Amino acid sequence: MEKWINHTDTGFRFMKPPVLWKSRGILLHLIRRDMLVTYKQTILGVFWTVLKPLAMAMVIVFVFGRLGSFPDYGLPYILIALPALSFWEFFSNSINRGSICLIDDRGLITRISFPRIILPLNASLRNTLGLIINLAVTVGFMLYYEVSITLNLLLLPVVYIFTFLLNFGINLWLSTVNVFYRDVMTLVPFILRAGLFISPVAFTLQSVPPNLQKLYCLNPLVGLIESARFCFLGKEFLPDFQCLLISGASLLALLLSGLYLFGKCERKFADVI
Amino acid sequence: MEKPIIETFGLGKKYRISSSDVKNGTAEKSNSWIKSAFPFYGKEDSWALRNIDLRIEKGDVVAIMGNNGSGKSTLFKLLSEVTDPSEGRFVLRGTISSMLEVGVGFHLELTGKENIFLNGTLLGMKKAEINKHFDEIVAFSGVEHYLNVPIKKYSSGMYVRLAFAVASFLRTDILLVDEVLSVGDKSFKEKSIARMKEMASEGTTIMIVSHDTSVLTDLCNRAVNFQNGRMMGEGQVKDFLL
């Protein structure tokens, strides 16, 4: 076995599938570590995963359902909010973590050699368990309000995969830039707070002025959240196909540019971080 | 004849450091706040390592000697692919593992047992391998009774013993050891040196950085001396003792 390392080598080491496959154990252990660590020394433990979005749903139901004026969907407002909120929680949790995932594990980056892309990958999968619990809670509410459950629910894994890809694309960007400029980690919580209001979490795409809808769909979350609602609530919430295409395209652009940026910069991480 | 297990050709590593860091303590200091606020202002290149032509034969136990800042750790970071060379190239003819610091990836909130698996995986061990050596690792570290206790409750001695124990069961062709033999008390130190000898006798090529020259004389059959990022000579450990 001979392995040459040259100063002219460029990035993209992680693009080799065998390299990634060999490191799957690291990913699994990091996932385990994060799960174990999150709820150590808490009283409520894993129940926090359910409580957080539920409390948030209450606030949204109160503010938007009671105070705001929205079209009547013929459904309890909480059922409009919860599917969207579940995915929003998954998304925002992962982005919050993703922006700091590299500098948080700088101990690993500066001391051992492993495919660093595992770190943003891990951050993007974070809280999958929480998402599943939240989706189950949503189904519980549907049963309570006697809303019929359809086979559309089976499409949820597809929505999940695309949300994961969105997380991954954004995390590649944020984590990389944050290594060089820590401004990112100050900005991210603010942007996420704004994001909750500019994404159709508390309302639907129909509430957006028709002439702006196409532009609005550039936010990949629009397509994802609308699809999530469709999975739960059925035909009336069938997302606009064009909108899905636009959201999908901007998701793809984010992901590819993120991979490119990460690959270009990855070799400098250990020196700069 | 067998080719050397490690060969480097004109290997070098350069860092960019702001000039105020370099000329610390001079009149430059008066405007240092400007530099810290505008990071693009006044950067200089500084070579941590340059023109390194090194040949390590299979089975060698090599002492890497030199003062602080002579580039020893940078060499290890390059060889273990943590960081990239700025010039030159090198070849590895075997698997490499490094103990640059003990306890990579140790998490204070996790228990000793959880950390053994996390750390072992990060160092490149397979799950089956860790399982196989688990009892040995635990026995070596001597923390049997605290396996299910979060390591934040460990004494610093227990911490480093556990960390060293995991790393010392690595199966690899080349092992880089950076200043980790001086952890623990006297008896543990003797145990870790014995362990190193055992690995060397199994054919592992070892490169060691240590400021403890008695350890180096005891273990190594070769020595390389570094000063200010340059290789200043090769020979036996005793040749470079002051």
TrEMBL record, chain A:
Gene Ontology CC annotations of this record: ATP-binding cassette (ABC) transporter complex
Transmembrane segments: 42-67, 73-91, 125-145, 151-174, 186-205, 244-263
Location within or outside the cell: Cell inner membrane; Cell membrane
InterPro entries: ABC2_TM, ABC2_TM_bact-type, ABC_2_transport
Entry keyword set: Cell inner membrane, Cell membrane, Membrane, Transmembrane, Transmembrane helix, Transport
Coiled-coil zones: none
GO BP terms: lipopolysaccharide transport
Main subcellular localisation: membrane
Every ABC transmembrane type-2 domain range: 44-265
Topological relation to the membrane, as annotated: Multi-pass membrane protein
Sample GO molecular function, one term: ABC-type transporter activity
The family this protein is said to belong to: Belongs to the ABC-2 integral membrane protein family.
Designated name of the protein: Transport permease protein
Native organism: Roseivirga pacifica
TrEMBL record, chain B:
Entries under PROSITE patterns matching the protein: ABC_TRANSPORTER_2
Domain of life: Bacteria
Residue intervals of the ABC transporter domain: 34-242
Keyword set, alphabetical order: ATP-binding, Nucleotide-binding, Transport
GO CC term, one of those recorded: membrane
Matches recorded under Pfam families: ABC_tran
An annotated Gene Ontology molecular function: ATP hydrolysis activity
ATP-binding in keyword set: yes
Similarity comment: Belongs to the ABC transporter superfamily.
Name of this chain's protein: Lipopolysaccharide transport system ATP-binding protein
Lineage of the species this protein comes from: Bacteria, Pseudomonadati, Bacteroidota, Cytophagia, Cytophagales
